[in-house]
TrEMBL record:
Source species, domain of life: Bacteria
Protein name: non-specific serine/threonine protein kinase
PANTHER family linked to this entry: MITOGEN-ACTIVATED PROTEIN KINASE KINASE KINASE 20-RELATED, SERINE_THREONINE-PROTEIN KINASE NEKL-3
Matching InterPro entries: Kinase-like_dom_sf, Prot_kinase_dom, Protein_kinase_ATP_BS, Ser/Thr_kinase_AS
Keywords: ATP-binding, Kinase, Membrane, Nucleotide-binding, Serine/threonine-protein kinase, Transferase, Transmembrane, Transmembrane helix
UniProt binding sites for ATP: 44
Renumbered residue ranges of the record's region Disordered: 178-198, 274-312, 346-402
Location of the Protein kinase domain: 15-274
Low complexity bias: start-end ranges: 349-376
Class of enzymatic activity (EC top level): transferase
This enzyme's EC code(s): 2.7.11.1
Coiled-coil annotated spans: none
Amino acid sequence: MGTEGDAFRVIAGRYRLEARLGRGGMGVVWRAADQLLGRRVAVKELTQDGSLPDDDARQQRDRTLREARAVAQLHHPHIIVVHDVVEHDERSCIVMELIDGRSLADRIAERGPVGAAEAARIGIALLGALRTAHEAGVLHRDIKPANVLIESGTDRVVLTDFGIAQVEGATTLTETGSFVGSPEYTAPERMSGTRTGPESDLWSLGALLCAALSGESPFRRDSLGGILHAVVAAEIRPPVQAEPLLPVVRGLLERDPDRRLGAAEAERMLRAFLDTGRTPQPAGVSRPAAPYTPTQRDVPRPVPAARRSSRPSRRAVLVTVLLVAATAGAGISAAALLINRDGDGGGAPTSPAPGTSASRAPGTSTSPAPGGPASTVPSPTASTAPASGTRPAPSGYRTARDPAGFSLAVPAGFTREPQGERVFYLSPGETFRLGIKVTAPGPGGPLGVMRRAAAEGPRTNPGYRDGRVTEATHRGRPAALWEFSWSGFSAVEGPRHTYDLCWEEDGRLYDVWVSAPVGMAREAREHFDVALGTFLRH
């Protein structure tokens, strides 16, 4: 079907095919002439499943025509115009406006990623298109750069290829019993088979914005199994190029569809960026109004008060694995994916992260973290390092001599970020956050400082829980350890666990802490122990 030899055929007694423009899984697209109205159009011949019995094939054609006509009722400047839906030689054909331009995917491939302003413009156009479609009960289900056209001369953004669209309350246009869509841009709830709704299209738009800004989806991997795991379970890391639009991108890439950023709010935020050069937070979200105090232990992130982690359940991940096996033969076991994903409430990886040492700092003992995995805590009667000299940086770490007057070993790849009185060393994507603060001593010594900080924990750390302060020593000096879990500063990053030790030395109060996802508490403890064991003031 659809060879060059088919050119100059006349479809439905009206549309004369002139040249093939492209071919995809849904069919062949032709440039054609509407001989009745004297205009150029695009004609898409939909692929027909030859394996279906005649009755089933007829039902599929009827369904295709009925639902394509529903899509044709959509009227929006950024949605492809559908002129007609016809049958020819028992083939379904959709007649659309002919766009003189190229896809966003082609544009990225030829000229590279777009800037933040252009990405915002594209996002606004697509959000308007999706709002119109969703209000009419039509889901696109395949939002990706290849299905977005940029018209030559006008730069008009046009959402096209509703070929696998779904009309609310009806079966799909391409129902064959198999998964449809592009995995890199497919929402996790669709991957796990739990639901499909307007929110799924918005997730896909979030991935598309990342691709427009960086050149590829943040979920691109070398295998289908890797893609599905990235979408459903792995940590979500928007590209650095998305920083100007990060509140929108993170809001759209929220795994819980009930908490995902809505189309109207996302459009408002992108318009604000174009007007001011800064992207506001979603409505109802603001940074803490109080100035920094020693109790604010982490990089501040604005969040709704009620927002919590939206990591998928183990069942959802298992469903995804079964989907991989059923649809692609990916050869990945459910056990492998379940072991390698971050835990929902304390499951730790079975081996240390690359570049970390399995050794522990001297003078530590093992005890369970509250509500989490086994972790080491400084012994109340032992010091974490000799008073004279510190341990050298172990393999996978480097010694950072900080301008603030201290040095310590930090994992290779961590970057420095000062924030007022605090200094952070952050892993790529800020999965691990190592903080240091040097101040004057407080009343009650280290234990008093930590107890007051813990009392403020619910205010300074969203979802604060399982906090405890214990008396300890550091190199023979009085110290206090504060350990707690909390919900993180966004639902995207999920629940975190923090280790924090402070001690007095030569008239100064030194405070060192590490936070990480609860499923990576073991690696976080490793970084914490190494930092304390190598810390040296200058």
